[in-house]
């Protein structure tokens, strides 16, 4: 198995840029997916294959990768973006989620 | 529209089993894996395993290999996850989610979640 590490929390002001990182030794060789989860709701896929944005996801959500770290960037953060964000990756036999990052918009 | 609809909440006693269903609609059931993910109260997401509906092949997280059984009935586009020998640590919301079989993608459609409470 492998592990993915995220910061527990990130705080930004409305209109600023939020960056949430996900680190793991396996990441240079595996795609990363990002999910947004609001309280009481199922997760929503916001980035897939490291950098691609599914249809219907606002352009302010983007992904990037550098070595063992991938980053979810939310530009021009809105109050509605306050949520938990999870990265996820997979190898041939195991799917793993990061511990999650709580994004607070103050 | 594309959706996954899960069965209702369950309350079980320690040592019992629970079986959660996940009915797919709006897409070709056999074109997607069905994954199972759980979330304990106040905790993060935990992957349990996946099933390939058209042939019944399964992969499970090591933690659940001896307790969780995934199955599917393609005639009614429904996947199932049964968890045996329940303990209080299994109290969680259980989600199903789909992933395409033929290309890389994340879990793009999720069920609404099924709450399972294990309590004596």
3D architecture notes:
The complex is a heterodimer of chains A (106) and B (120). The model of chain A has no long low-confidence stretch (mean pLDDT 96). In chain A, 0% of the residues lie in helices and 45% in strands. In chain A, strands 1, 3, 4, 7, 8 and 9 form a six-stranded mixed β-sheet that branches. In chain A, strands 2-6-5 form a three-stranded antiparallel β-sheet, with no helix packed on it. Chain A is mainly beta. With 120 residues, chain B is mostly beta strands. Helices cover 0% and strands 52% of the residues of chain B. Chain B contains no helices and eleven strands. Chain B has strands spanning 3-6, 10-12, 18-25, 32-39, 45-52, 57-60, 68-73, 78-83, 92-100, 109-110, 114-118. In chain B, the strands form two sheets. In chain B, strands 2, 4, 5, 6, 9, 10 and 11 form a seven-stranded mixed β-sheet that branches. Chain B has a four-stranded antiparallel β-sheet with strand order 1-3-8-7, with no helix packed on it. In chain B, a hairpin with an 8-residue loop joins strand 9 and strand 10. The A-B interface holds A 1, 31, 33-35, 37, 42-45, 47-49, 54, 84, 86, 88, 93-100 and B 35, 37, 44-47, 50, 59, 61-62, 95, 97, 104-108, 110-113.
Give the SSE map.
The complex is a heterodimer of chains A (106) and B (120).
Chain A: E1 9-12, E2 18-23, E3 32-37, E4 44-47, E5 61-66, E6 69-74, E7 83-90, E8 95-97, E9 101-105
Parallel strand pairs in A: 1-9
Antiparallel strand pairs in A: 2-6, 3-4, 3-7, 5-6, 7-8, 7-9
Chain B: E1 3-6, E2 10-12, E3 18-25, E4 32-39, E5 45-52, E6 57-60, E7 68-73, E8 78-83, E9 92-100, E10 109-110, E11 114-118
Parallel strand pairs in B: 2-11
Antiparallel strand pairs in B: 1-3, 3-8, 4-5, 4-9, 5-6, 7-8, 9-10, 9-11
């Amino acid at each position: 198995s492998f592990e993915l590490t995220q910061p527990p929390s990130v705080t930004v002001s409305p209109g600023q840029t939020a960056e949430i990182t996900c680190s793991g030794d396996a990441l240079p060789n595996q795609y990363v997916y990002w999910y947004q989860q609001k309280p009481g709701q199922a997760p929503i896929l916001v980035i897939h294959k490291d950098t691609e944005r599914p249809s219907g996801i606002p352009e302010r959500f983007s992904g990037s990768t550098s070595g063992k770290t991938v980053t979810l960037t939310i530009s021009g953060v809105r109050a509605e973006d306050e949520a938990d964000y999870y990265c996820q990756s997979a190898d041939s036999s195991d799917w793993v989620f990061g511990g999650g990052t709580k994004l607070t918009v103050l | 529209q594309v959706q996954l609809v899960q069965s209702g909440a369950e309350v079980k006693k320690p040592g019992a089993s629970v079986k959660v269903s996940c009915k797919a609609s709006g897409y070709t059931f056999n074109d997607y894996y069905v994954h199972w993910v759980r979330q304990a109260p106040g905790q993060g997401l935990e992957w349990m395993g996946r099933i390939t509906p058209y042939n019944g092949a399964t992969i499970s997280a090591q933690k659940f290999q001896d307790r969780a059984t995934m199955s599917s009935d393609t005639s009614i586009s429904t996947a199932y996850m049964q968890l045996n020998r329940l303990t209080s640590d299994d109290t969680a919301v259980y989600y199903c989610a789909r992933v395409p079989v033929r290309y890389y993608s994340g879990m793009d459609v999720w069920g609404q979640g099924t709450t399972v409470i294990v309590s004596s």
